[in-house]
Amino acid sequence: MRLMFFELTTEPLDVGAIARRVVPEECGATVTLDGYVRRFTKGRETEHLVYEAYEPMALKEMDRLAAAAKEKFEISNVSIVHRLGKLEIGETSVVISVAAPHRRAAFEACEWLIKELKRTVPIWKKEVYADGEVWVEGE
After folding, report:
1. How far is CA 116 from CA 62, 88, 101, 128, in A?
2. According to the CATH classification, is domain 4-130 in 3.20.20.480?
């Protein structure tokens, strides 16, 4: 069974539950990225983050990325879930899970997906500091 799952939500993310959505019998590995809000960025102390998205386009681009990853790597299933709204330090902002018959492909695909998500998906991040705030461009 091939499965791709994408979601944008304002609710807290359950990393384990999201990862388990993509585990099929034929796979030997699932690699999951848990991206969360850190306290310091480039020496500046972050109070919280705010994520916004152009939701219809973001979901369409997530679908396109997953399809491209399946073409590029020997993987079976992909799940991408991104949280929107205000997130506090330590809260999960994105979960990407990739299931594959072998772990190397799952690792490579997961790394490629987070880089491409930050580069192409219309999700914007505002970092809020004690002395101001800044919208951050994708990497």
Report:
1. 9, 24, 22, 24
2. no
Beta-sheet pairing, 40-41 with 77-83 = unpaired
Sequence ranges of the domains in the chain: 4-130
Q: What are 72's two structure tokens? A: 């590029």
Residue 10, pLDDT score? 98
Q: What is the pLDDT of residues 79-127, one digit of tens each?
A: 999 999 999 999 999 999 999 999 999 999 999 999 999 999 999 999 9
Strand residue runs (E) in 1-139: 4-9, 29-36, 40-41, 44-53, 77-83, 85-88, 92-100, 123-129, 132-136
pLDDT of residue 27: 85
Residue type, 78: V
Q: How many whole angstroms separate alpha carbon 127 and alpha carbon 69? A: 29
Beta bridge partners of 133: 128
